[in-house]
Amino acid sequence: MSLSTEAVKQARRRLIEMHHHSKVGHLGGNLSALDAMLLVHHEFMDEQDRFILSKGHSAGALYVTLWSLGLLSDEELKTFHGENTRLPAHPPARGIHAVEFATGSLGHGLSLAAGLALSARLRGRRQRVYCMTSDGEWQEGSTWEALIFAAHHKLSQLTVLVDHNRLQGFGATGDVASMDPLWQRLAGFAVEIRIADGHDLDDMRASMSPSPNDRPVVVILNTCKGKGVPALEGRMDSHYLPITDAQVSEFMKDESMKDEPMKDEFMQDPVVHGQSTRAGQIMHAEHR
Amino acid sequence: MRRQFCAALLERAANPNLVFMTGDLGFMALEPLQAALADRFINAGVAEQNMISVAAALAKDGFEVWAYSIAPFCFARAFEQIRNDICLHHVPVTVVGNGGGYAYGVMGPTHHATEDYGVLLTLDGMRVTVPAFDEDVPGAVAALAQNGSPGYLRLGLGMLPAGEQAPPFAAWRRLLPGRGPAAIAVGPLAGAAMTALVELPESERPELWVAACFPLDIYPPPAALMEKIKRHARFAVVEEHIKHGGAGSMLCHWLLMNGVALSGIEHLHVKAHPPGRYGSQNFLRRQSGLHVESIRHRLAAWSRFERASPAKVG
């Protein structure tokens, strides 16, 4: 199923609407991850394929992706982050069929994905496993354990997507614990490295094919935290703070959405935002 | 118990769903299993966190997975993986900790596991099995395989006294009759307790039981033991585990929650953690009062005191 630019825009609007409605932060890393998540689900995954969201704080993007596939209803998205919801801020355990594992503590997902890939091999199944990590997550030792394992066992069924938005919880990845350039670190293992613009569908399409060399594929997606919302783009505080009414208005103007207005509740929902305590804008360098 | 464990899994090797993972341990013990399982025997390397998560994923796909290492390396290093990836998803991985308690002796405190089952039993759905004797291992493996639950198997060094026969494996077994109150041992210390008590006259010794399976809500004490505990309102526990979270505290809580009035408990547990001096498992047990002579002295005195001053209940 081909993914159109318009479908990506629609999903982005729905993601922003959902986070705004729920007054939830973590939007920046959801917006950086969304395009790739949509593309993989719509164009690359067959019914038997698996997806593990290792950067569990991008659960909103995953829920919207499942919504775009008709696997979650619009009504259910409205429960995001609420009481008695199936959709918590990080993917749940044993609640939603398409969500294989509860994640959120970083450093688990790649091992789980490697296990699923090994399972496919032992069962003789032609099945691909996709795993999305953050870039800060590569500071977790267990992620390297998983990479060593996947490379050693030549788990060529595995494709790892690294959301390389260069911002983490309390600083830029290059300032907190630099692994720059990340691709060079990863290239030290027997994996196939590709680099793509994580907001360019064609560029990503060209990067997702399996390796011809029996190796896991690692696609480093150069992305922009807060992609699509000018007030959030490249800003660390988009990791935490809910989107404000003003930021939503700015986003709507920028997206030229007048021909498809947001739902009423989107703009009428009374939201009390803590005013931004932006400690300083962190510029997003080199995201392309 | 490693040889018995290997033999028990070899019996199950024909099951195409069985996968065995090791954190680079098993030299001169697990080679036959490696040969039998071929690509279903996976040495995950010195990377226990990854091993446990991979095991969880395999189990989610229907494999029966055994993940093996030295006890502290698999239960403590990978605790979050056990919690999040195995237990939150209730997948049937059995974590196998070789050398529970002080079994690795003079190897030092990093190799001891004296808080393993107390910690793991805080996790939802976790079932723990602690074989007491080498002969228990096949039954323990079979029981864990049938559970379909997250599991932990604590292996040690069986100490069945010469000339004695181990009763068939079960969650609860009576090892020695006695006129005194019940003494409950956990794991291989049951053999030490048998050695300590077997030569005392039946009229002067506690009744010795061994507990092998937890939690107590799933494996409650049998009626005969309950009757004994109610009659004396006291019992003793002997375990190679720290006091907090051990079988002693679990039993007290379970009995009180089930309306059994207690006037006391004699709890022989690991005290020296970490120990100030190092030596063999027996040396370390002695430091905690868990070697044969200490057990005999304490339980005989406690049993006599109990008979002289019967507890008033109710």
Q: How are the secondary structure elements laid out?
A:
The complex is a heterodimer of chains A (288) and B (314).
Chain A: H1 5-22, H2 27-44, E1 50-53, H3 59-68, H4 74-77, H5 109-123, E2 129-134, H6 141-152, E3 158-164, E4 167-168, E5 171-172, H7 173-176, H8 182-186, E6 192-197, H9 201-205, E7 217-222, H10 245-255, H11 264-268
Parallel strand pairs in A: 1-2, 2-3, 3-7, 6-7
Antiparallel strand pairs in A: 4-5
Chain B: H1 2-12, E1 18-22, H2 31-37, E2 41-43, H3 48-60, E3 64-70, H4 71-75, H5 79-87, E4 93-98, H6 116-120, E5 127-129, H7 137-147, E6 151-155, E7 172-176, E8 182-186, H8 189-197, E9 207-211, E10 213-214, H9 223-232, E11 234-242, H10 247-257, E12 264-270, H11 281-287, H12 292-308
Parallel strand pairs in B: 1-2, 1-3, 3-4, 4-6, 5-6, 8-9, 8-11, 11-12
Antiparallel strand pairs in B: 5-10, 7-9
Question: Largest interface, counted with CB-CB under 8 A?
Answer: A-B, 26 and 26 residues
CATH topology of the largest domain in chain B: Rossmann fold
Order of helices and strands of chain B: HEHEHEHHEHEHEEEHEEHEHEHH
Proportion of residues in β-strands of chain A: 5-15%
| Oligomerization status of the protein chains | heterodimer
State the CATH superfamily name of the largest domain in chain B: Thiamin diphosphate (ThDP)-binding fold, Pyr/PP domains
Low-confidence stretches of chain A: 257-288
Q: Per CATH, what is the topology of chain A?
A: Rossmann fold
Average pLDDT of chain B works out at 95
Report the uncertain regions of chain B. 308-314
Summed up, the helix count of chain B is 12
Classify the secondary structure makeup of chain A into a structural class: alpha/beta
Q: How do the strands of the widest beta sheet of chain B line up side by side? A: 2-1-3-4-6-5-10
Share of helical residues of chain B = 25-40%
Q: What is the overall number of helices of chain A?
A: 11
Q: Round the Cα radius of gyration of chain A to an integer and report it.
A: 18 Å
End-to-end Cα distance of chain B, whole Å, is 44 Å
